[in-house]
Design a protein that fits this description.
By secondary structure, this protein is mostly helical. The chain has one domain (about 20-175). About 55% of the residues lie in helices and about 5% in strands. It has helices at about 1-40, 50-55, 80-90, 95-100, 105-125, 130-140, 140-145, 150-165, and strands at about 45, 65, 75-80. A three-stranded mixed beta sheet has the order 1-3-2. α1 (about 1-40) packs across α5 (about 105-125) and α7 packs antiparallel against α8. The protein is globular. The chain starts with a helix and ends in a 30-residue tail after the last helix.
Length: about 200
């Protein structure tokens, strides 16, 4: 009888923990959806996998948006477990290394997660071309980072750093010859800084 009582307590505790984690994931997804909706220009959803789904995630992509046969995007994006985790903790990442010029992979990955949300939001806006989508996303990474709690100036520095370090190393289909200061894909041509 005592074994059953202990088992019931353990099951109850695990259920409560699972429910609390589920509710936290829903709140996080809602916050990310609000940011993505602003960039997409319409109401969209962001999906982060549950703990169990994250264990079996085999897509290998930081994020994805499905398009139908007519070229219309879905109303949601699916983010990888790693992207969601990085976004959840973005405001706690120490980016002071940017001032010293010695940031590492952990800071780059955290900043790239903010970029990924911007990228998927522009797919949700209807852009299928990866080069155009990437250029627009690189110009809005600071917006995402700031909305997730990174101070404005630091978010701007992160955006410039990701453009300088990440963009040149991306596959050709993610680059565009029109992505430069004052170029056709410059979303803010009246400003002197790019992205």
């Amino acid at each position: 009888m005592r074994g059953i009582a202990v088992l019931l307590v353990v099951v109850g505790a695990l259920s409560a923990l699972g429910f609390a984690r589920h509710e936290q994931r829903i709140r996080e997804q809602d916050q990310l959806a609000s940011i993505a909706s602003d960039l997409a220009g319409r109401k969209v959803a962001v999906r982060c996998p549950s703990f169990l789904a994250g264990l079996v995630d085999v897509h290998g992509e930081a994020g994805r948006v499905q398009f139908d046969e007519s070229g219309r995007p879905a109303d949601h994006t699916d983010l990888s477990p790693e992207t969601c985790k990085a976004l959840r903790h973005l405001d706690r990442v120490d980016f002071s290394c940017l001032e010293r010029g010695d940031c590492g992979l952990s800071q780059f990955s955290a900043g790239w997660a903010a970029h990924t949300l911007a990228h998927e939001a522009f797919h949700l806006r209807g852009f299928q071309d990866e080069g155009i989508t990437e250029c627009y996303a690189l110009q809005n990474t600071a917006y995402v980072a700031e909305r997730l709690g990174v101070p404005t100036r630091q978010a701007e520095v992160i955006q410039a750093w990701l453009y300088k370090r990440g963009y040149p190393n991306e596959p050709a289909e993610y680059q565009s010859s029109q992505c430069y200061d004052g170029g056709p894909l410059d979303l803010r041509p009246q400003q002197s800084r790019f992205p």
